[in-house]
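Long-time lurker, first post. I've been practising inverse folding by hand and with some scripts of my own, and I keep getting stuck on stretches where the structure tokens seem ambiguous. Below is the full token string for one chain I'm working on. Before anyone asks, I'm not after the true native sequence, just a reasonable design that respects the backbone. If someone could post their per-position residues I'd love to compare against what I wrote down in my notebook.
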């Protein structure tokens, strides 16, 4: 399921990037302003993230799609070590296969220099700025997930909050860092394109930023409980992470 999730995210990224950035695309020709195209790319990927998070498979696995997210919940004790290992392997494989499938379907429209496998690369501001940008975006995203998902009144809005941040980050930070915040997402493009520029940034900054979010969360909350590792936790689905069973829950509710 995690392989499917990041695979679908990468297919969506490839399709929308090709529509918006390939010079021969009617969409590209109709929208000459690169800032508007970038904002539309952000919107498309934010909506893609939301759709995956609230999908049946996303609700079952937790829709991490990101090794940094999985490692953060591992640190919090909400994901078993073996589950975390298989999640991360699946994320890397799924992302790479999704990108490969997009390349097979779209050919040079996707693999050519204008779209270039949607690789993530630092902008003209340099490696240091890209690292800091990736770090703080990752921290903000994970902190938001922890705050929203562990507040009863807002827990079902976690996916929307995450999607909004993805859209915002792509719009504002893609020219600065490439906007990855995900080691598996960057690897997916790199392994298919052979472009490994500054890979260390995308394998360190997101993980460091999300792990740091745990410390910030614990300082902000007097009782920093974390209920589960899922980004959306519907009442009708059994949870492999927290052990929630809808049948047992219904029986308890009936007994009360």
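-- Answer (accepted) --
I ran through it position by position. Result:
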């Amino acid at each position: 399921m995690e392989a499917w999730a990041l695979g679908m995210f990468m297919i969506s990224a490839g399709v929308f990037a090709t529509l918006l950035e390939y010079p021969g695309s009617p969409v590209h020709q109709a929208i000459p302003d690169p800032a508007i195209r970038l904002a539309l790319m952000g919107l498309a990927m934010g909506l893609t993230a939301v759709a995956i998070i609230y999908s049946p498979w996303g609700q079952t696995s937790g829709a991490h799609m990101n090794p940094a997210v999985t490692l953060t919940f591992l640190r919090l004790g909400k994901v078993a070590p073996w589950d975390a290992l298989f999640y991360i392997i699946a994320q890397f494989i799924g992302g790479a296969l999704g990108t490969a499938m997009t390349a097979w379907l779209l050919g040079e429209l996707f693999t050519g220099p204008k779209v270039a496998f949607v690789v993530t690369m630092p902008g003209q501001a340099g490696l240091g700025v890209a690292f800091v940008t990736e770090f703080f975006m990752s921290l903000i995203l994970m902190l938001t997930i922890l705050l929203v998902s562990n507040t009863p009144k807002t827990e079902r809005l976690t996916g929307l909050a995450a999607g909004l941040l993805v859209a915002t980050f792509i719009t504002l930070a893609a020219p600065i860092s490439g906007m990855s915040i995900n080691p598996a997402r960057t690897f997916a493009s790199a392994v298919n394109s052979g472009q490994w520029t500054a890979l260390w940034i995308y394998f360190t900054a997101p993980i460091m930023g999300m792990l740091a979010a745990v410390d910030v969360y614990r300082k902000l909350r007097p009782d920093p409980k974390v209920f589960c590792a899922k980004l959306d936790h519907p009442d009708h689905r059994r949870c492999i992470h927290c052990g929630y069973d809808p049948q047992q829950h219904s029986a308890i509710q009936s007994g009360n």
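A couple of notes from the structure itself: The first helix runs from residue 2 to 21. The domain at 2-255 is CATH 1.20.1080.10 (Glycerol uptake facilitator protein). Happy to go over any region you disagree with.
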